[in-house]
Amino acid sequence: MQPGGAQPVSQADAVDIPGRPDYVDSYVQGNRPIPATAVYAVTPEHERSTTRRETAVVYMPAAPPEMMYFARCIAHAYITPADAPCKAHPAPFIRAVIGAVLPALLYELHPPGHGADRKVRFRCPEDREAAMARQPFALDGATVKLVREGESSNVRRIRLETLAHVALHGYPREQRSVEEIRGNCNSFGHLIEVDPACFAAPDLSPVRAVIRLQHAREIPREVRIRWGGWWLHVVPVQILRVWDWSESLDANGEYVPIYGPAAVVPP
């Protein structure tokens, strides 16, 4: 959106993808400079019922190896049946029922998550797998079942097998860094690479980037960058090309960037 409230000009998509959200909001954190092209604006009532997502979606970077190791030490303990008296005080029962089968096993019980009765942290991944192999644990008509971290019923795993080449039009120079471009795109995909020529380009020129995501219909028609909830700059998003992730892998399974190695952003 330009000064005076003029609407930005959206570019025709090279690839027609139906069902895309009209827009997503991206909030700038911290005391960052506000572009001169931003306007003081409140979302009109009629736009609050558009195809903007009702829930927030954020694509997070891959966890570091130490966090992956930590996750492999975690399981969630579920007690059945639902009306078992031991559910009122689950920790003593879980210790008793597991201890009856694996008395030497070391672990810690923590407050529950994912609808479980307790979270169980084992000393190492091998200890968790040893416990998984001996379940279910039963005692006095009640049963404890362990579920690995990331495998509970309320966790949905998705495959990011789509790549999209997009152009972010009217992009302000104040947001023209890898981290800020990533932040403005992380509600619809992982930023894979940015055209290096974009960083030295004039203010409001397009930023071209490659995004990895589940489906191209997640890409909004606009990214509305907001400062403090009031200042607004609208960035129309044009889809230039969509293709399968596998088409960009070499014989060794390594990603081949379209703008060269210097364009690849760190994970």
Please characterize this protein's 3D structure.
This protein has 267 residues and is an alpha+beta fold. The chain has two domains: 3-62 and 158-263, no CATH class; 73-148, Alpha-Beta Plaits. The chain is built from four helices and twelve strands; from the N terminus they run E-E-H-E-H-E-E-H-E-E-E-H-E-E-E-E. Strands 1, 2, 8, 9, 10, 11 and 12 form a seven-stranded mixed β-sheet that branches. A hairpin with a 2-residue loop joins strand 6 and strand 7. The protein is elongated.
Q: What gyration radius follows from the Cα positions, in whole Å?
A: 24 Å
Oligomerization state of this entry? single chain
Gap from first CA to last CA? 31 Å
Number of H- or I-type helical stretches = 4
Protein name: DUF4283 domain-containing protein
Organism: Setaria italica (Foxtail millet)
List the helices and strands and how they pair.
Blueprint: E1 24-28, E2 39-40, H1 65-71, E3 74-80, H2 90-99, E4 107-110, E5 118-122, H3 125-134, E6 137-139, E7 142-148, E8 162-168, H4 178-185, E9 190-194, E10 207-213, E11 222-227, E12 231-244
Parallel strand pairs: 1-11
Antiparallel strand pairs: 2-12, 3-5, 3-7, 4-5, 6-7, 8-10, 8-12, 9-10, 11-12
